[in-house]
């Protein structure tokens, strides 16, 4: 009996789209939503009811097919970006992975999450956003006073089309400066995404041009720890400016001796 796992229809479709259009030396490969429909028909595959999930999967959850990865130059990788309504593009960008540094210390914070919130959150991402909000982790991490403006904000950005920001905060510091803080939250098997951070920053520059943008990514780690990253966009690369790891615990488990340097 064969032990080879059959390839998913998502892999079949996205691989065919890329290989049919890519030529050696290309750094971008445009395609459209109708291309997805046509390729599915050519391959005699049932088109996913939610075509957007196919794209979301390869943008934020899963690696692109190996045949696509093999065409990337050393030190670079292919990502899928939105270029407008129903317009997309494979882009070759510097290899960028935002992953927690396991050598960092864990900072204990008294858990202020209501039990009813933990009981009824339905996804890792939803739970993570709620935990960050109720425990004021954005304030603690940035040393700012911040307020949640909107979560799962859907809006449009020029040359991108519709995007969604997981949660958007505004903040103020002791000098009276105002900040806009797009937060990207990932749990489970999802990976922190350079693509999402880039579109979040572009959205804030367009919608809130007078505010200082501080893009944040948060991610569940093992043992219910939470990694938080302050990021900076430079060209096609995302740089980590700061990283902290937090763990929410009962107040009785916090030893004041841990506060001393």
Overview of the structural elements:
The strands form two sheets. Strands 4, 5, 6, 7, 8, 9, 10 and 11 form an eight-stranded mixed beta sheet that branches. The chain has a three-stranded antiparallel beta sheet with strand order 1-3-2. It is α/β, with parallel strands linked by helices and 261 residues long. It has helices spanning 9-21, 33-42, 51-61, 66-69, 115-120, 124-134, 137-142, 194-207; strands at residues 28-32, 76-84, 87-94, 106-110, 145-157, 161-172, 178-186, 212-213, 216-220, 225-234, 237-249. The termini are far apart. The chain folds into two domains: 9-94; 106-259, Trna Endonuclease, Chain: A, domain 1 (3-Layer(aba) Sandwich), CATH 3.40.1350. The longest helix has 14 residues, at 194-207. A hairpin with a 3-residue loop joins strand 5 (145-157) and strand 6 (161-172).
Key phrases:
8-stranded mixed sheet; alpha/beta; 3-stranded antiparallel sheet; single chain; 261 residues
Structural class: alpha/beta
Return the CATH architecture of the largest domain: 3-Layer(aba) Sandwich
Largest sheet: 8 strands, mixed
In whole angstroms, the N-to-C terminal distance is 60 Å
Task: Return the CATH class of the largest domain.
Answer: Alpha Beta
Secondary structure: elements and pairs:
Elements: H1 9-21, E1 28-32, H2 33-42, H3 51-61, H4 66-69, E2 76-84, E3 87-94, E4 106-110, H5 115-120, H6 124-134, H7 137-142, E5 145-157, E6 161-172, E7 178-186, H8 194-207, E8 212-213, E9 216-220, E10 225-234, E11 237-249
Helix pairs in contact: 1-2
